[in-house]
Amino acid sequence: MMQLKLALLVCAVATTAAAATTATPLPTDEHGDYNAADIIEWIRSKDDGIVHESLRVGRERPGDPTSINGLFVKSDAKAIEEGEVIANIPWDCIISSGKKYSYRKFESCSAIYKLADELRKGEESTKAPYVRYLLNLPRGTMPGEWNNAEKDFLSKVLGDDQLPPYEEDWRYGFERHWINDCEGGETDEMERAAYFLTQSRDEDTLMVPLYDMMNHSNDPVKLNTLSYKPRRAGDIFSVVASKKIEPGEQVYNSYNRCSKCGIEVYGVDPDNCETFSYYGTPDIFRLFGFIEDYPQSWVFDTADSSDDEVPNELDFCMMKDPNIDGEINVYWREEGVDDEDIAWIEKQLKRLRELLSQKDKLEKELVQSEEEGEGDDKKIRRAQWETIWRYHGALVTALKLSSEASWLDSSDDDDDENNSGKDEL
Questions:
Q1: Helix intervals (H) in 165-274
Q2: For residue 239, what are the β-bridge partners?
Q3: How many whole angstroms separate alpha carbon 320 and alpha carbon 327?
């Protein structure tokens, strides 16, 4: 479910399976853009398999390599009406843990092992069209997959675990979850690839073709689908239009529709929370490698991260003001922002701003040059450098607006107290 990009897996992964070294080329449209024609045909060939006739896979601006990939309604086709099925993905097309599948299970070692097996089979897999696509996806888009130089600099931006996402999840997730919990191999590149693919693309232990090509948005204007998981092994995975989707429009999914902010602030109906996507904005960055647009959901732990017995969280949501262009509103989920919290916010802002003032100097020291290429893992690649700074900007904005909202809330409380006293007089 990450934003759809295409490039061959690193050779170390490909050579793990003979099938992967001779991967069949991906289908493209007349512009040379990937169009998932093989996956669409494969799904439609199955009993109960449906892909809406108006749906296309490709770039937002066909033929423009700078344009985003995703799912769209064809510009020359009829609209997809509210309630229409966009896609029914049969169980036979889904990579899962098989009979061990549980509707209420959100992580599965068995599902990762199963995906690794399918990747090794390559073109011999019964799910070859989907496996072919997965084998052609890029590696290294998630912070947990970055090289050590990139991880070290992200840690520096995060204040060595003072800000989310916290290292236990993004830096040591592979070791903690795959190696320790699942007893997986540390050096098996297909297992490593399977682990990170499930982290970034699965839907509660299910790897679902076509569905995982949909881009993310929580913007109530853009978000236009609902997804329904199989209740039991053997059932279909269904994607339905939640509103009319006009020709040329993108078909969006939400990776965290059912976050606490989604339900409590944005008005998401809990009955539509089939896929249990509860991630906050730092989790979206950790799992998918991008910073989501508004609305956003943030939780900052202002206490010493080593003292788990004394949590002190700033928990708030950020949403565009529907009436004032460019205005972002902050909604607190928990009360109790005090002077210590505000001092902690200001300390973090000062540190992040000081780091920003050194950006040019750090870039010369840390970022790979064109001459060095991407083989030097002691330097930061350009794409990862820019991603880290985008997240830096998101952190600064969230902390700054939360601080401003705290002062405003405090002023409102003082006014209420003063007015209350006057009323009593």
A1: 167-170, 173, 189-201, 260-264
A2: 87, 227
A3: 6
| Rounded Cα distance, 40 and 46, in Å | 10
Determine the Cα–Cα distance for residues 80 and 270; give it in Å rounded to an integer.
24
Q: What value, to the nearest 5°, has the Cα angle with vertex 15 and ends 14 and 21?
A: 60
- From 258, 268, 250, 293, select the one nearest 390 (Cα to Cα): 293
Q: CA 92 to CA 90: how far, in whole Å?
A: 5
Could you tell me the pTM of the whole model? 0.86
* Burial readout 50-84 (b: 16 or more C-beta within 10 A, e: otherwise): bbbebbbbbbeebeeeeeebbbbbeeeeeebeeee
Residue type, 315: D
Q: What is the pLDDT of residues 120-179, one digit of tens each?
A: 999 999 999 999 999 999 888 899 999 999 999 999 999 999 999 999 999 999 999 999
58 with 72: CB under 8 angstroms? yes
8 Å CB contact between 230 and 98 = no
Give CA–CA dist 277/347, Å, rounded. Answer: 32
Distance CA 415, CA 69 (A): 50
How far, in Å, CA of 340 to CA of 408, rounded?
Answer: 16
